[in-house]
Amino acid sequence: MSRNAPEISLAPGMASSRMRVGFFFVAHVLLLIIVLLGFSPSFYLRAAFHHTTQLPSLLYVHGVALTAWFLLPVVQAWLIRTRRLWLHRRLGYVAAGYAIVVIVFGILANLRLISEIDSPADGENIVIWGNFFTLAMFAAFVSLAVVFRKNPELHKRLTLLASISIVGPALARLPRWPIFAGGLEAGRNYAIGGLLVMFASLITYDVWVRRRPHTASWVGMVLIIVSLASAVFLGVTGIGYHILHGAAD
User: Fold this and answer.
1) Residue 109: how many CA atoms within 13 Å on its side-chain side?
2) What is the pTM of this model?
3) Rounded to an integer, what distance in angstroms lies between the CA atom of residue 234 and that of residue 119?
């Protein structure tokens, strides 16, 4: 077992730094598992689920890019746990640049979905705006994580929020597995419920180790919820459809 990481100081009456790092490591591992489970039927194990259509090349690249992103924080958290701080910092710069790749291919995949929708009543309008808003949240959290990289408590929460902000589509696909109840129609419930559980877990952790929620935790939570509510509003009212197709015209 390694000693406590030197850059994470302990305040009186607070939990050990090992527990703090451990929470974020486990959280990122769980996010990676959710992504692997959620996208296995349509991506990783597509052949086993007997899909009859070929997945476009763009979506293959998009899927690989997202998978690599969710793997990066797991590696980063593990490097902290094993006190390989110099490698953690170097890989951090790579991750920050790689986030741009995630955003670019996320936008391209969303533009492809826009081209397939021809009615303001299509429920996919909510998905489109949800994707745009979550990508914006992702970009903001990653940028702030880079800015505050010398503040470990803030940095690791912002990094976790970045991944949480884009995990919704994976949560929504969990009902494609027979072991999950509700069927495909329950996808949005899984996404909303899963995000709420993640937020509650982060706030509970904050209260346990700090006696109060960290500002980044609750502000990030509120921003993600507001962005998703805005996506639902734009999608349901048809305003979002007219904005996108009006711009296209």
Assistant:
1) 24
2) 0.86
3) 13
